[in-house]
Amino acid sequence: MGKKKKDIIQLERESVIPIQKPKIISSLANLLEQTSDRADFLRLCQRIEYTIRAWYLLQFEDMMQLYTLFDPIHGAQKLEQQNLTPEEVDEFEIKFLMYLFQVMDKSNFRITTDDEIEVALSAQYRLNLPIVVDESMLDKRLLTTYFTKHPHDNLPYFADKYIIFRRGIGIDHTTGYFFKSKVNTIIVRAWRCFLKVTGLKRVFFRKSRPQFKNDKKESIEISTEAEQDDLYVERIRVENMKLSIFSKLLSKITIQEPTFDRIIVVYRRANTKKENKRGIYVKHFKNIPMADLEIVLPEKRNPGLTPMDWVKFLVSAVIGLVTVISSLSMPKADIRVIFAILSAVIGYCVKTYFSFQRNLFTYQSLITQSVYDKQLDSGRGTLLHLCDEVIQQEVKEVILSFFMLMKWGKATRQDLDVWCEELIKKEFNESCNFDVDDAVQKLEKLGIVAQDSKGSYACVDLKRANEIIGTTTEEVVLTAKQGDSTL
């Protein structure tokens, strides 16, 4: 992910298929002309899912069992019951992380890199305060040990303390008047112009970060353009708009910001002298604006006045003091002038303080929203969700690939990749970077696709595919349950 020009975010197309599995199956079945073919296809889809689910069952069970030892709530009690040595606990936690990272990869989650973090935070959306992580509250040993044994490329600078996984891209947009933000932007532009003219820009220049209000939302069209495997999404902010009294200043505007559709944060809290904490936190968030990514950071410090705010206080106090002393040193000091100067200085300091309080209230509201609205789950719930995501994605890839081979006959991997992406675009109006390699691997493992000497792949017919996979345990159980219900 990179930034193009000034307000354009460059995004890579991801391998995740955004369509629900039932919709894919029903839509593809309706494309088949023969009723018998539709029945065989639906049966095959069911057997494919049951088989893939069985493949992952043991791995997922191992991961969930290991997590019971590192659950932040009950994990310590489970560890005591196991009577494990410290070396065994270390081995188990590394094994758990290995399973977790494998599931993340299969679910098409990616570790955020420094470049992605820089691009995401290069603008501002609703968060107006500098957010800092209290590193003394985070453990550094766990992830450092894991990445030493299992190296990864392009790890972020904070990878020894916590890891942020991301998947999917969305758009958050808000429509409103944003009158205060517009006025602040105009004032900042005038101030910058003054500093530039007077030559004080290098001393006092500071990037403006106006505040956005969370007003009524409405949908707008997003202009994106595809370029090979990438697309571009525009950031629309008040700071970059042309503001005039007769156009946008007194009318509603729409701002927009790309979002991370899913965010998962993994970390461990630091140990204290009294207790050795081994709990591993896994938190799952949704629809996080890129510019407000700080709200998902673990162990955040309470924000305070920024260094620039303190500079404003001190400069205002010095200017006021110098002006008052100069006025008092004059032969005829005007008390009204002195009072006006002091009132202006005090008023400016009060304004700065209340601006900070307003930003702090907005920050607290965003944190509350991230907990109640944007946090999907944590711990065991997140892991169960990830396990199901892996299965759903694999099933969708296999079904789409088999359907295209069944419809068009032989194909190379490259052709099959293009066909599946075109089908997704045509039938569902969605785009993704289809993972054809993983799909073909699963089809070969199922035994319903074979490769010839020229490198092309061909599938067996529907009836033969059902015979090869055979009756699954789930089908036997369902048949037995139906038999019991008729008694």
Automatic annotation (TrEMBL):
Keyword annotations from UniProtKB, A to Z: Membrane, Transmembrane, Transmembrane helix
Membrane spanning stretches: 310-329, 335-354
InterPro entries: DUF3754
Pfam families for this protein: DUF3754
Keyword Membrane set for record: yes
PANTHER family on file: AMINOPEPTIDASE, AMINOPEPTIDASE (DUF3754)
Protein name: Aminopeptidase
Organism: Quercus rubra
